C-alpha cells in the first residue's frame, strides 16, 4: 500500500471516529481525572424525569498516530487551514492538503541536505505563505503555488524565532488564501529584535530569490531571544492593536494604533505600519517578569469568533486567552479589550500554574520537568513533553488528560519534537522524527458546567450545560443557594425551572406573607408548559389572576391607610410622609396592572372567562373587569357597564370602535335619549348600519321632545339627512320618516328644507306622496301641499289651495306646471283671474295677470267683471284686442285663398293623370313569370316594370303583413262571388217571365261593386312596384334565405 493510500485510510478513520464521538453522550470518564457526570434526563411515562448518572467511553482528548510513512526524519511541522507542511531531512518539504490527502506536493529547499538538521517553520492562517528559518540564519519563503522555496535575500544571517501574522485573516481564511499578499507581518529574532515585512510571490516565476521587504521596527529593552509573538486587533476599535512579545523571562504588552487596512498598503514602501506602535509601547514597557532562569518562553493565544451585540456584519476573531511557558510554570489568563491606551494592560485573571510532576514508575514523584511546547484550546492548556502530552483545565487548574507515546517509540528514541495548532480548523498536531500525531478533541466543554457549578457561577454553568439533566442540577443548586440567602423571588424563579415537584415547591412559598414570591414561581412555571397542557395552564393562570387581584387590593388598602394616617397628623407630616407612600403604592399598582394585563393577553385563550369575571367582581376590580372584557372582545359587557354607570360617552366610544350592527340597534334607543349628538356622530362613521333599523331609536328621541334642545338641531333629522344625501339610501321607510320629521320641524313660514327635499326627490318618489300630503295638511304646510298636488297631477286642487290661502304668486307658479295641456293651463289662469277680480283688485293688476299668463285675452276675463264695470279702464286693451282679431282675420283669409289655389292645382293634376299612358311592346313579358304580358290581365308601373295581375298579387301577398294579406284574400273572394253573380245575371233573360226593370237595376249595382272591389284591390296590390318600391328597399337588410329554405345553415348557398 502506498503512502497516499495510508494517509487517505487514516483520514477516513479519524473522520468516522470524530463523528461517533460527537454523537455519544456528553458525559465522559476522561484520562486520569475521570469523574461521573449527570447524563441525559430519562423521561418516564408518568411525566417525571430521573436524574441518574451515566458515563461514556469517549474521552475528551485522545492521541492518535497518523498512519503516514514519512520518507525521512521529520525536522519541523506546521498546520494551518487544513494545510500540513512537513520539513524532513534531505532538504525537502511536503505540503499536504488534508481535504485532498492524495495531493502531496514535494518542495525543494535550496540547502545542502547534510546541513539542514534543525529549523523553524511558520505557516500563515490561510496556509498560503510559508516561512522557514535555520539557526544559521538562512531564511526561505514559499508560496502555495510554488514547488521550490526561494531564499529571502534581505533576511540573511537573521534567525527568525517567532512570527505574528495578521490575525483578522482567521475570520476569512478562504478569502485570505486567495490573496497573493500575506499582509503586514511581524517577525522576532534570537537577539531581541522585531522586524516588519510583507510576503508576496514575485511576478517572475523564474526568479530564484525573493526580495520581500524587511524593516527593523523595534528592539527589546533587554536583548533576549524572542520566543513568542502575537498580533491581535481590538474588536470595537478598528485601528487599535495588541502585540504580545514573549521571551524566556518577560511577557510584554504593547497597545497602540496601527493602520493595517489594504488602502494603506501603498504607503508601506516608505513608512512602517507598526514602528510607531512598538516604539511608543517599548519606550515605557508594560511587562510581566518571571524571576529565575529563563524558561522555554513559548507563547500561545486562543482566538474565537465573537459577534458584538447589534452588529450586522460578520463575527470578529478576537483573542480571548493566552498561556506562556516560564521557568516557574505556565502563566495564563484572559485578554479583555476595552478602552486601553498605550501602557495599559489587557490581561485579566492571570495566574501562574506550577508544572505538574512526572511519575515515571508510578511509585514516587520526581521534580517537575519543564514542557517543551504548549498550546491553548477553549478551556485547556496542552503541555508537550518529550515523551507525553498533558491537558490542564484552565478553570480549576486540574490535569484532565495525560498520555505518553508508545513504549517502543520511546525506547527507539522517537521522542516528541513539537506541538502545533491549526487555529482555523481547531485541530492539534504533534510530531516526532518518525511519526505524526493528532490530538483529537471531543466535547471539550462537557465538564465545564460542573466546574462553574462548584464555583457557584450559575449563569456560566447554564451556558455550558449540554442537556436538561445538567441544567436541572445547576438550577436546583442555584435555587437552594438563593433561598438560603433570602432571595426568595429569584429562588422561586429557579425552582420553577427545575424538576422539583410542584407541590413541594409551592409549599415552600405559599405561607410567606410576601405574595410576590409565589407569583414569581407561578409565572416562571407557567412558561415551562407546552400549549398542549391546557388544564395546567388554565389553573395556573387563574391562580395568578387571583394573586394579582389580592396584591392590588392590599396596595389599595395600604394607600388608604396612609392617607388616613396623614390626615390625622400635622400638616408637616402630611407633606412629608403621605405623598411618598401613596405615590409608591400607585406606582406599584401600575406595575402590577401592567403585568396582569400582559398575563391575560398572552394566555387569553386559556383563561376561563366566567371565573375571571367572578374574581374581578369579588375583588371589586372593575378596571381589570373592563380590560379583560375588551381583551376577549366582549364589548357588549363593556357597553352595558358604562351605561349602568351613566357614562354614556364612554359607551358610545366603545361602540364606535368595536360595536357590531346588532349592538348599535340594541343600545341606540337609550343612547339617543342620553347623548344624541355624540351617538349620531358615531352612527355616521358606521357604513355597515341599516338606517331603517335605527328608526325606533330616532322615534323615541323625537317622542321625548329632545329634538328641541339647542344641541345643534334635531339629531334624528341630521342622521337621516346623512343617510339620504351621503349614503344614498333608497329605503322608502327612511324617506317617509325623514319627511315626517321635516314636516314637524319646519315652520309654516319657512318650509325651505322640506320644499328642497320634495323638489329634489319628487321625481324618484321614494316616499309615499299620499302620506306626505296628509302630513303636510295636518301640520299646515301649505306650500308643500300645493307642491304635492302638482306632483300628483292634481293641478286644479293645487291652484285652488293656493288661492284659498291668498297666495296668488304660488297659484301662478303652479298654473304653468301642466305645460303640455294648454286648455288646462288656460283654465287655471282663468281661475286665478276670477279670484283676483273677485278680490276687487285694480284693473291694472288684472291686466298684468293677463299679460303674465300669455294665454288669456281681454275677451276671456271680461265676463267675470261686474256688470257696471267702466269700460274706460280697459279701452286700450280692448282696442289692442280688436286690432289683433283683425290681423288674425286677414291671416285666415289669406290661408283660405291659398287653400283654394291648391285645390285647383290638384284637380288639374288629377285630370292629367287620367290621360297618362304607357307603351307596352308586343313581346313584353311579365317580370315575375317571364310569360308574354298579353295572355291575361296585367299592370304596368311608371318605372316600366309590368306584371300579370295574379303574379303581382302573389308577390305582394308574400311580402305584406298579416292584415293586408287577409284583406287581399277577402277581396279575391268577393271578386269570385261578383263574377259568379254577373254570369247569373247574363243568363237571367233566357228565363221566361223575368222582369226587365229589376235586372237593369241589379246589373248597375253589381258593376258598382266590381269597380269598388277592383279599386280596393289596385290600392293594395298596385300601390307601388314590387321591384323598386319602398317595400323592396326595406328588405335590403334581410337574409336571402328564409327560415323555410333548404340548407338554411349555409349548405344551399354553397358554390
Topology of this protein?
Blueprint: H1 3-23, E1 37-38, E2 42-43, E3 49-50, E4 53-54, E5 61-66, E6 74-80, E7 83-88, E8 92-97, E9 100-108, E10 120-123, E11 129-133, E12 139-143, E13 150-151, E14 160-164, H2 173-178, E15 184-189, E16 193-198, E17 214-219, E18 228-233, E19 240-246, E20 250-257, H3 275-283, E21 286-289, E22 299-306, E23 316-325, E24 330-335, E25 347-353, E26 373-376, E27 380-384, E28 388-393, E29 399-404, H4 407-411, E30 418-422, E31 427-431, E32 436-441, H5 448-454, H6 458-463, H7 468-484, H8 488-496, H9 502-509, H10 515-526, H11 534-568, H12 571-576, H13 578-602, H14 609-618, H15 622-631, H16 635-644, H17 648-658, H18 661-674, H19 676-683, H20 695-703, H21 715-725, H22 732-745, H23 752-760, H24 769-778, H25 782-791, H26 795-804, H27 808-815, H28 822-838, H29 843-853, H30 858-861, H31 875-914, E33 938-940, E34 946-948, H32 949-959, H33 962-987, H34 996-1021, H35 1030-1034
Antiparallel strand pairs: 1-4, 2-3, 5-32, 6-7, 7-8, 8-9, 10-11, 11-12, 12-13, 14-15, 15-16, 16-17, 18-19, 19-20, 20-21, 22-23, 23-24, 24-25, 26-27, 27-28, 28-29, 30-31, 31-32, 33-34
Amino acid at each position: 500500500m502506498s503512502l497516499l493510500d495510508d494517509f487517505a485510510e487514516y483520514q477516513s478513520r479519524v473522520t468516522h471516529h470524530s463523528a461517533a464521538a460527537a454523537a455519544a453522550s456528553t458525559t465522559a470518564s476522561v484520562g486520569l481525572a475521570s469523574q461521573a457526570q449527570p447524563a441525559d434526563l430519562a423521561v418516564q411515562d408518568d411525566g417525571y424525569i430521573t436524574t441518574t448518572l451515566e458515563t461514556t467511553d469517549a474521552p475528551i482528548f485522545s492521541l492518535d498516530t497518523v498512519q503516514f510513512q514519512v520518507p525521512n526524519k521529520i525536522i519541523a511541522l506546521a498546520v494551518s487551514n487544513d494545510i500540513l507542511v512537513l520539513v524532513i531531512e534531505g532538504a525537502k518539504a511536503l505540503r499536504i492538503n488534508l481535504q485532498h490527502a492524495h495531493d502531496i506536493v514535494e518542495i525543494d529547499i535550496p540547502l545542502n541536505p547534510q546541513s539542514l538538521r534543525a529549523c523553524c517553520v511558520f505557516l500563515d492562517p490561510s496556509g498560503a505563505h510559508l516561512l522557514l528559518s535555520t539557526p544559521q540564519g538562512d531564511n526561505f519563503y514559499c508560496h502555495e503555488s510554488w514547488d521550490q522555496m526561494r531564499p529571502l535575500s534581505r533576511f540573511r544571517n537573521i534567525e527568525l524565532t517567532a512570527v505574528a501574522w495578521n490575525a483578522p485573516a482567521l475570520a476569512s481564511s478562504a478569502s485570505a488564501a486567495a490573496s497573493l499578499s500575506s499582509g503586514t507581518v511581524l517577525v522576532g529574532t534570537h537577539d531581541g529584535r522585531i522586524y516588519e515585512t510583507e510576503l508576496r510571490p514575485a511576478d517572475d516565476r523564474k526568479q530564484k530569490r525573493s526580495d520581500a521587504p524587511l524593516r527593523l521596527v523595534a528592539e527589546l529593552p533587554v536583548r533576549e531571544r524572542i520566543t513568542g509573538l502575537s498580533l491581535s486587533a481590538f474588536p470595537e476599535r478598528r485601528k487599535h492593536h495588541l502585540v504580545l512579545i514573549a521571551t524566556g523571562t518577560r511577557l510584554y504588552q504593547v497597545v497602540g494604533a496601527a493602520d493595517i487596512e489594504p488602502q494603506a498598503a501603498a504607503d508601506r514602501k516608505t513608512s512602517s505600519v507598526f514602528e510607531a506602535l512598538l516604539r511608543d509601547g517599548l519606550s515605557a514597557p508594560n511587562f510581566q517578569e518571571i524571576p529565575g532562569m529563563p524558561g522555554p518562553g513559548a507563547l500561545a493565544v486562543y482566538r474565537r469568533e465573537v459577534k458584538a451585540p447589534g452588529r450586522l456584519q460578520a463575527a470578529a476573531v478576537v483573542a480571548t486567552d493566552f498561556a506562556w511557558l516560564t521557568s516557574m510554570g505556565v502563566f495564563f489568563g484572559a485578554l479583555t479589550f476595552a478602552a486601553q491606551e498605550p501602557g495599559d494592560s489587557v490581561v485579566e485573571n492571570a495566574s501562574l500554574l506550577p508544572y505538574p510532576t512526572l511519575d515515571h514508575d508510578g511509585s514516587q514523584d520526581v521534580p517537575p520537568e519543564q514542557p517543551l511546547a504548549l498550546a491553548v484550546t477553549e478551556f485547556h492548556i496542552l503541555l508537550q513533553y518529550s515523551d507525553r502530552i498533558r491537558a490542564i483545565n484552565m478553570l480549576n487548574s486540574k490535569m484532565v488528560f495525560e498520555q505518553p507515546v508508545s513504549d517502543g517509540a520511546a525506547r527507539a528514541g522517537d521522542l516528541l519534537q513539537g506541538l502545533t495548532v491549526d487555529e482555523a480548523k481547531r485541530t492539534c498536531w504533534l510530531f516526532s522524527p518518525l511519526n505524526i500525531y493528532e490530538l483529537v478533541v471531543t466535547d471539550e466543554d462537557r465538564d465545564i458546567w460542573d466546574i462553574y457549578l462548584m464555583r457557584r457561577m450559575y449563569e456560566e454553568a447554564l451556558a455550558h450545560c449540554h442537556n436538561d439533566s445538567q441544567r436541572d442540577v445547576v438550577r436546583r443548586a442555584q435555587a437552594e443557594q438563593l433561598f438560603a440567602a433570602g432571595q426568595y423571588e429569584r429562588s422561586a424563579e429557579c425552582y420553577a425551572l427545575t424538576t422539583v415537584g410542584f407541590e413541594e415547591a409551592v409549599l415552600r412559598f405559599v405561607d410567606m406573607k410576601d405574595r410576590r414570591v409565589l407569583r414569581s414561581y407561578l409565572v416562571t412555571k407557567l412558561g415551562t408548559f407546552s400549549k398542549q397542557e391546557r388544564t395546567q395552564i388554565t389553573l395556573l393562570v387563574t391562580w395568578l389572576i387571583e394573586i394579582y387581584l389580592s396584591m392590588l387590593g392590599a396596595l389599595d388598602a395600604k394607600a388608604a391607610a396612609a392617607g388616613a394616617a396623614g390626615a390625622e397628623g400635622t400638616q408637616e407630616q402630611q407633606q412629608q410622609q403621605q405623598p411618598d407612600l401613596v405615590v409608591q403604592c400607585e406606582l406599584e399598582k401600575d406595575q402590577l396592572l401592567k403585568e396582569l394585563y400582559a398575563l391575560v393577553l398572552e394566555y387569553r385563550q386559556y383563561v376561563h372567562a366566567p371565573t375571571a369575571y367572578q374574581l374581578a367582581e369579588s375583588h371589586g376590580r372593575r378596571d381589570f373587569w373592563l380590560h379583560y372584557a375588551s381583551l376577549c372582545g366582549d364589548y357588549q359587557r363593556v357597553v352595558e357597564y358604562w351605561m349602568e354607570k351613566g357614562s354614556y360617552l364612554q359607551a358610545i366610544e366603545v361602540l364606535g370602535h368595536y360595536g357590531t350592527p346588532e349592538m348599535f340597534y340594541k343600545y341606540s334607543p337609550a343612547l339617543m335619549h342620553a347623548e344624541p349628538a355624540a351617538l349620531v356622530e358615531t352612527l355616521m362613521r358606521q357604513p355597515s348600519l341599516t338606517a331603517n333599523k335605527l328608526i325606533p331609536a330616532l322615534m323615541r328621541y323625537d317622542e321625548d321632545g329632545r329634538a328641541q334642545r339647542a344641541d345643534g338641531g334635531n339629531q334624528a333629522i341630521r342622521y337621516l339627512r346623512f343617510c339620504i344625501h351621503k349614503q344614498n339610501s333608497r329605503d322608502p321607510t327612511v324617506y317617509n320618516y325623514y319627511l315626517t320629521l321635516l314636516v314637524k320641524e319646519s315652520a309654516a313660514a319657512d318650509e325651505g328644507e322640506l320644499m328642497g327635499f320634495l323638489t329634489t326627490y319628487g321625481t324618484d318618489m321614494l316616499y309615499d306622496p299620499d302620506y306626505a300630503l296628509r302630513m303636510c295638511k295636518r301640520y299646515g304646510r301649505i306650500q308643500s301641499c300645493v307642491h304635492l298636488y302638482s306632483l300628483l297631477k292634481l293641478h286644479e286642487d293645487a291652484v285652488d289651495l293656493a288661492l284659498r290661502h291668498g297666495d296668488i304668486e304660488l297659484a301662478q307658479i303652479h298654473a304653468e306646471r301642466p305645460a303640455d295641456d294648454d286648455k288646462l293651463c288656460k283654465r287655471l289662469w282663468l281661475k286665478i283671474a276670477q279670484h283676483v277680480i273677485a278680490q276687487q283688485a285694480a284693473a291694472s293688476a288684472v291686466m298684468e295677470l293677463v299679460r303674465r299668463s300669455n294665454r288669456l285675452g281681454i275677451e276671456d276675463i271680461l265676463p267675470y267683471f261686474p256688470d257696471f264695470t267702466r269700460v274706460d279702464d280697459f279701452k286700450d286693451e280692448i282696442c289692442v284686442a280688436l286690432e289683433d282679431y283683425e290681423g288674425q282675420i286677414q291671416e285666415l283669409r289669406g290661408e283660405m285663398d291659398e287653400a283654394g289655389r291648391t285645390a285647383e292645382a290638384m284637380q288639374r293634376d288629377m285630370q292629367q293623370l287620367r290621360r297618362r299612358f304607357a307603351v307596352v311592346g308586343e313581346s313584353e313579358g311579365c317580370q315575375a313569370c317571364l310569360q308574354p304580358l298579353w295572355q291575361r290581365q296585367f299592370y304596368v308601373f311608371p318605372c316600366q316594370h309590368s306584371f300579370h295581375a295574379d303574379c303581382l298579387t302573389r308577390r305582394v301577398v308574400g311580402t305584406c303583413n298579416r292584415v293586408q294579406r287577409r284583406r287581399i284574400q277577402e277581396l279575391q273572394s268577393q271578386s269570385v262571388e261578383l263574377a259568379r253573380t254577373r254570369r247569373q245575371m247574363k243568363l237571367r233573360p233566357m228565363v221566361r217571365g223575368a222582369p226587365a226593370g229589376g235586372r237593369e237595376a241589379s246589373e248597375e249595382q253589381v258593376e258598382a261593386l266590381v269597380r269598388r272591389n277592383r279599386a280596393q284591390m289596385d290600392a293594395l296590390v298596385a300601390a307601388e312596384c314590387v321591384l323598386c318600391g319602398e317595400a323592396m328597399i326595406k328588405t335590403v337588410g334581410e337574409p336571402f334565405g328564409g327560415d323555410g329554405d333548404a340548407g338554411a345553415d349555409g349548405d344551399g348557398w354553397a358554390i
